Amino acid sequence: MMEGRPIKFRILEILETEPVWNCDLVRQLQSEYGMPSDYHRDCLNFDLIEVAASGMIGEADAKIDAEGKFKKDNLLTLYRITPIGMELLDELKAKVRHRKGE
Amino acid sequence: MDINEKRNEINRRRMKYGYMMALFCALLWGIWYVPGTFIWKFDVVADFQAAIDGQRAETYSNKAFLAAAILITGLNAVFVMISYLIWNLYLGKAKFAEMRRSIVELRACTKYYLLGAICGGPIAILGSFIAMGYIGGAFAAVAALAYPVIGTLLSSTWLGQKISGRALAGIMIIVVGSITIYATGLIEELAGGGSLIGYIGGLMALCGWGIEGAVAAKGLDVSEPDIAITLRFGLETLIWWVIAIPALALMSIPVYEYALKMIADPVILLSLVMLGLTFGFCYVAWYKSFPLIGVGRGQGIGSLYGIFAVIFLILFIGVDAAIGADLKSQASLIIGAILCTAGTLVMFTEDSENVISLRDTGEEKEESQ
Contact A53/B362, CB-based, under 8 Å? Predict the structure, then answer.
């Protein structure tokens, strides 16, 4: 439902069903929103940091990126949606502009 | 470095970046007061007020003053928007795509920026000018500088943002310090008897910017700061140029003629460009700080603009013209500056481990059940 809508809407929806590692989440968003460069990758990762700081998503697990899957020796975070994030997602679903077929 | 250390480092960096953004906002806001003060000194602005009052004078009626304030603020908004278009072009076409996706989500997203534009634009700016016109500049400055009190209160009660005792103490010390800078002028102005309209104007400024912060933070939960601020200022520009300025024209005020005269003058144009750049990027930084450190901390540090404005005005127009030649004013500036620095240090040294999330996420409740 949130595909093609503002990025933070989509972040909440992707995490609605299960936790996702930040590297996989960013790659999915890069592909969906046509943002392929490393600059775009960092922008999207920053969006995740903002959403996490707001309390809508939180850390379920973390590990050091020893293999360089995302950024070598940096922290990889497994994000999951929080109860207030779920409330916000439900609110957004009720308020988004309806598209044909929805 | 183990996972905990890495996590703490990321959190520290986020807080530091948020505080830097808020400080950058205060600095630019302070610089804005230099062109913001000079713009009133141009003959065209005096001519515009004289055209409304029917004669040249030392001071003009409140109607002429408010009309000039609306014209300058409307032009300021246009040049802020030009800065944002250039800024978003620099950030790349992905930002324009995100802007298009956000702007159509009126109920889920854009409505917050419309409310922010109304609160921070006509309500706060006009209120500030009303306070200035009916009571005085020091009262207007004090009213505006106290806005973090409203912002912190709303972000805590309405948005559920957590605020530590230390952060709250820092915000309050900065607010008191900022107000102290203008204390001498404030006492003199209030001794003059004040004015009910002036007090209402002060309240508009206080609540306008305070509410804007909280409303913007709600919108920033679902959109990016660069997009948010462009939408907010786009809407404010529309409010000035579709409602307020045509309303002046309907009152037979030659507002369009003088807007063109101002733009046609190269020196005034340069001042407007400076206004647009400083105000524009101060707002970008303000909005970028909210999702990282919360509304209370962002507004608390943001209100350091009071001290920065005085410092920059002293650099450009001298101590006497900026704060007055009397010892009392200069002493209150020094005391205010010490308090502002102390408040900033209290906030900067807050332990970032306590601010992993700006809100209670609701998980604590689930775990206890």
Answer: no
